[in-house]
């Protein structure tokens, strides 16, 4: 069963507008972490933002914020005031613990295009 | 600037060849990972290691093996490359803290084409 679901294969947004990228997850572990990464056309994976399952407040990092709805198991990324440089692939990921070690499980990603 | 370095950015190999993908990190991280990235499939974990000489299978280990003889180096081995292993391979590392934003740092990727 898919643990991280990103249903939007692609989105278009106008420069300076806000955009929400959807992510839902599935886990029975009470302790988990959720991450968003950006991958521009250059291929590098860039960490954007993190939300812990016990964090009381939604995470924010500059123009990025995470709309964390624990009961609905969703962790949507909100980008405010989109810029042309935000055009990239975006991946949602969840940290799992396995017998003392941990790994990150990624969604299939979605492509964001910011139009001028 | 901290780094994860993958030895080859682009490789072209023939079916049946043995392929080594090397990854080195300079952050003294305990955990290292090999992912494969394919369009529409996202990143899938092949193998990971949480200590020297330790390895764990990820979600798609078939056709791959790994080696971690030194803390900073994690190698991915394709014993007999096949065309369905044509892909982008991403190495990553992280520290062993089990809480908080234990962020993975990625290398630039190695794009392998098997003919």
Task: Please give a structural write-up.
Helix content of chain A is 0%, strand content 54%. Chain A has no helices and 12 strands. The radius of gyration of chain A is 14 Å and the shape is globular. The model of chain A has no long low-confidence stretch (mean pLDDT 91). The mean pLDDT of chain B is 92.
What's the short version?
The complex is a heterodimer of chains A (116) and B (115). Chain A has 116 residues and is mostly beta strands.
Tell me the series of helices and strands of chain B, N- to C-terminal. EEEEEEEEEEEE
How would you characterize the largest beta sheet of chain B?
Answer: 7 strands, mixed
Helix count from the secondary structure assignment of chain B: 0
Instruction: Report the total helices of chain A.
Output: 0
Set down the secondary structure blueprint.
The complex is a heterodimer of chains A (116) and B (115).
Chain A: E1 4-5, E2 10-14, E3 19-21, E4 24-25, E5 33-39, E6 46-52, E7 60-61, E8 64-69, E9 74-79, E10 88-98, E11 101-106, E12 110-115
Parallel strand pairs in A: 2-12
Antiparallel strand pairs in A: 1-4, 3-9, 5-6, 5-10, 7-8, 8-9, 10-11, 10-12
Chain B: E1 4-6, E2 10-13, E3 19-21, E4 23-25, E5 31-38, E6 42-49, E7 56-57, E8 65-70, E9 73-78, E10 87-94, E11 105-106, E12 110-114
Parallel strand pairs in B: 2-12
Antiparallel strand pairs in B: 1-4, 3-9, 5-6, 5-10, 6-7, 8-9, 10-11, 10-12
List keywords for this structure.
heterodimer, A: 116 residues, mainly beta, four-stranded antiparallel β-sheet, 12 strands, 0% helix, B: 115 residues, seven-stranded mixed β-sheet, three-stranded antiparallel β-sheet
């Amino acid at each position: 069963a898919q643990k991280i679901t990103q249903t939007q294969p692609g989105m278009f947004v106008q420069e300076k507008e806000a955009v929400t990228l959807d992510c839902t997850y599935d886990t029975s572990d009470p302790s988990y972490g959720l991450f968003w990464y950006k991958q521009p056309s250059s291929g590098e994976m860039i960490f954007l933002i993190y939300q812990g399952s016990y964090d009381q407040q939604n995470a924010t990092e500059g123009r990025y914020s995470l709309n964390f709805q624990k009961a609905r198991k969703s962790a949507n990324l909100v980008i405010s005031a989109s810029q042309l440089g935000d055009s990239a692939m975006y991946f949602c990921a969840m940290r799992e613990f396995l017998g003392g070690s941990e790994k990150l499980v990624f969604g299939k990603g979605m492509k964001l295009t910011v139009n001028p | 600037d901290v780094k994860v370095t993958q030895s080859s950015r682009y490789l072209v190999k023939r079916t049946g060849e043995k392929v080594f993908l090397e990854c080195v990190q300079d952050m003294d991280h305990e955990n290292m990972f090999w992912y494969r990235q394919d369009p529409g499939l996202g990143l899938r974990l092949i193998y990971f290691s949480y200590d020297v000489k330790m390895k764990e299978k990820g979600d798609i280990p078939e056709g791959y093996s790994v080696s971690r003889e030194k803390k900073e180096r994690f190698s991915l081995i394709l014993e007999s490359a096949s065309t369905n292993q044509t892909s982008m391979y991403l190495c990553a590392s992280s520290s062993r803290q089990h809480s908080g934003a234990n962020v993975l740092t990625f290398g630039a990727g190695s794009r392998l084409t098997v003919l």
